[in-house]
Amino acid sequence: MTIFLQVLQVLAGLLLIVSIMFQTTKSESGGGMGGMGWGVIGGKSTSSLGRWGNEEYIARITTGVAVGFLALSLLVAIVSMK
In the chain, count of helices (H) and strands (E)? Predict the structure, then answer.
């Protein structure tokens, strides 16, 4: 069981790395303010208030994978202590 959980943990770690790599940083988004990433005061433009954009979707996926990775890490630690 420990080996199975460790394999899942490695896969979750790789998925977490990939999901973080797909995110855009504030400096990449530009916004016309000299590369500072301040597109609009308040952080969101009016076009992103409706449906989710790619950034919000990827951020949700990254959060879910990170929580799963944390849970798997705790489970592996508990199982390996016995």
Answer: 3, 0
pLDDT tens track for 23-47 = 887 766 655 555 555 555 555 554 5
Contacts of 66 (CB under 8 A, 6+ apart): 16
Triad 64, 75, 66: Cα angle to 5° = 20
20 neighbors 62 (Cβ within 8 angstroms):
yes
CB of 62 closer than 8 Å to CB of 27? no
What local confidence, expressed as pLDDT, does residue 73 receive? 96
Domain residue limits, the chain: 1-21+53-82
What string of DSSP letters covers 37-55?
---STTS--GGGSSS--HH
